[in-house]
Amino acid sequence: MELSIVRAILNYQFGDKVGDRIVEKYKDSIKVEVSKNTGRIRRVYIDDKLFGTIEPTTGFIIPSFFGGEIIKGFLEYPKYRVVVSDDSLPFIKEGKSVFCKFVVEIDDSILPEDIVFVVDGKDNLIAVGIARLSASEIKSFNRGVAVKIKHVGGNI
């Protein structure tokens, strides 16, 4: 039951049948943690590593860095990616937000509050974050926060 919910959330959130493909590939190693009080899904683990946490207000999955690597691997470039300049990498690796002026390329379909994958020019995952603006706004602004970072590197 819980696996079908996780699959549906991932399919809705990221499209491209990402949920179907992830559940199919990792079906034997996915564990779902359910709240004893509410009965709702709280966390999803793959191979005993945190894949993501369910955001209680939206019901969406906020992937860990590990989860971001898995999801990004199932998405074609440039889907849900924000490519940043090399100048910003040291700051992002410290968990600081991505500012509009450092965005080099972005998926045109990104909307505010979407989960995005912050990558360098070689499509290496740097961080997982939440878009604060739409792609068109990020492209047109020279100031302001484009992405609020949630997870960097191996940190949770």
Write out key terms for the chains shown.
PUA_sf, 32% strand, TGT_C2, Archaeosine Trna-guanine Transglycosylase, Chain: A, domain 4, 2 domains, RNA binding, 4-stranded antiparallel sheet, 6-stranded mixed sheet, 27% helix, Nuclear Transport Factor 2, Chain: A, elongated, single chain
Secondary structure layout:
Layout lengths: L1 H13 L3 H9 L3 E5 L6 E6 L2 E6 L6 E3 L1 H9 L7 E4 L4 H5 L4 E2 L3 E4 L8 E5 L5 E7 L3 H6 L4 E8 L4
Parallel strand pairs: 5-8
Antiparallel strand pairs: 1-2, 2-3, 3-4, 5-7, 6-10, 8-9, 9-10
Helix pairs in contact: 1-2
Concise overview:
The protein has 156 residues and is α+β, with helices and mostly antiparallel strands.
Fold and architecture overview:
By secondary structure, the chain is an alpha+beta fold. It folds into 2 domains: 2-73, ArcTGT, C2 domain (Nuclear Transport Factor 2, Chain: A, Roll), CATH 3.10.450; 81-152, PUA domain (Archaeosine Trna-guanine Transglycosylase, Chain: A, domain 4). It contains 5 helices and 10 strands, in the order ααββββαβαββββαβ. It has helices at residues 2-14, 18-26, 65-73, 89-93, 135-140; strands spanning 30-34, 41-46, 49-54, 61-63, 81-84, 98-99, 103-106, 115-119, 125-131, 145-152. Strands 6-10-9-8-5-7 form a 6-stranded mixed β-sheet. A 4-stranded antiparallel β-sheet has the order 1-2-3-4. Strand 1 and strand 2 form a beta hairpin. Helix 1 (2-14) packs across helix 2. The model has no long low-confidence stretch (mean pLDDT 95). InterPro entries: PUA, PUA-like_sf, PUA_sf, TGT_C2, TGT_C2_sf, Uncharacterised_CHP00451. Residues 80-154 form the PUA domain.
